[in-house]
Structure formats: structure tokens, C-alpha cells
Amino acid sequence: MTARLTLCADESRAAGEDPIGTAPHWAEVTVLELDVPVWAQLRAVDRWTPAQSAVFAALREKVESSGAGFGLLMSAPLAPGAPLRVRHYVRGPGGYRRQDHASDLPQTEWARGLHDTLIEPARLSDWAAVPAPERGADLHVCTHGTVDAACGRYGVPVHAALRDAGERAWRTGHFGGHRFAATAVELPSGLLWAHLTPALAVQVARREVSPAEVAGHLRGFAGLSARAQVLDRALLVQHGWDWLSAQRDAQVDGDLVTLTATADGQTQTYRAAVTDAEPLLLPGSSHTPGRAPVRQYALGEISGPAVTPPGTPVL
After folding, report:
1. pLDDT number for residue 307
2. 217, containing H or E segment
3. Reported pTM
4. Mean pLDDT score of the chain
5. Which Pfam families does the UniProt record give (predicted)?
């Protein structure tokens, strides 16, 4: 009889893994509202039609030419079987800006949603623009237990707790990071979370805890690259939740990270070295026994802020 594998999320927590720097780097995010059975259709690469394959080929070309990554999330709609609807988030001040687009298309036309939002946005004129909520966050919780058992075990109760608390939570397909279950993408802030519990998820959504209390659960801000996410987290802890309202950009030169934050017409610049720490050897899945080195980071002393008056170019 084959021994049952330990859930990768349990191994990550037991090893004390720091999840910072594991958020993907996205310039924009498209969320397709798809019923759970359709998730498997989108993931079945060998069954894609030529048109569907062409969309992903175009997306790869876009990434290679611009260097800007994109996020693709699949979230179950509030009304099962509803026509295809897309939520599109574009990087901007304070995180991302959300715009909703509705259609009369069946959900199986998901490739059209990707094409029109990420490749040829002029075609969104054929969709119905739907006003996005003015307040509150969208918590996209991975509940994709068929991809990894950890996301089913830990993600499902977190999603349920958020919904029961009246938060805007979405049952979402795999977006990477099984070992961080329950893991969530929070938009429009662009924060990714790790090892959430039902109670903690509600506290995070309502900002009932300080950044310092939940720093160990933060995977990073998707608007920045990995090393910049490490410095950004430290500055979030220092400044509090108001830090998220600033436009944050960063340059990374080897281990040196230069991060600028602009708010109310004033830009502040911070610098720090973000180096590699001792890696951990962890499984990437709950379904296979293989282990691989997992990168960890060490943050050096932060210098700054250097304040740039309004109107002065930032180098």
C-alpha cells in the first residue's frame, strides 16, 4: 500500500517558509467567469482548437516583446451557466483598475475573452461595459482541489468564510503556489496571500490586522518583481495599509532594489539590497514526492526616503 503524501502546504508551514517574493509579476489581469467544469477544458492544452492555441501563441509573443506578464484567473460566476463575462484589471496607481465586460457568448468562447482584453482591446467595443464596484476588494481564493489537494482542503473553507462574512470572494482555479494554500489573489490591491485560515482571511479582507501581524502571509505585490516585493513588504509594515494607495515602481540591479512611491504629487525613493538566503527543500505538489530548492530572501538595511518635489523627473 502506497503511503499517503503530506500536503505540500503543511510541509511549507512546518518548514517556516517565508512566502515573500513568490507573487507573479503582472501588468494586467484577466478574470474569466467560468463554471468549474469549464476550468478543466481551459487547462486541457492537448484539446485546444487551433483558434484557442493561436490566442496563447499571441500572448506569448506579447510577453516576449514587452516583458510585461499577465495574469489569467478562472472564477466561478455567481450565476452558474451565465454567458461569458470578463473582469479585467490593469496596473495603475494603488494597484490595479477594474473594468467588467459582459457578453452573450457561451463560456466555451473563453479564448475570445482573453483575446479581446489582452491582445486586441479595441474589440471590447463589442462587449457591454458593466460598472465595477466602487469599493471593496475581490478575493480570488484557489479552491482547485483536482490540481492539488491542499487547495481543496484549505481553500474551500476560506472561500466559504469570506462569503459568509459578506466579502466579495470568488471560487478560483489554479494560479500557482499550491504549497501556500489557502492562497488568494486580492484585487485591486494586487496582493497575493499565503497560508490563510478562514478567520485570518476575513481579518485581512477587512484590514482588522496590521501589516506587521500578517507579513509572514504575504506572497508579494504583483505589480513588482520578486526582489522588489521583499522591499515593498517591509515598507508596507513600516507605513501601514495606506502604503497601498501609492503608485509603486522599482528598478532591480543585481541585488540592489530601488523603489519609488508616488502619492499626492510627491515621490519618495527607497533602496535596499535583497539577497538570496539559504533555500529550503520542499515539494511543489501534494501529489508527487519530488522536492526542489525553494528560494528565500534576506533584506538589507533600507536607505531613504529621498523625497522628490512634485514636477521633478525621477531617474
Report:
1. 54
2. none
3. 0.93
4. 92
5. Suc_Fer-like
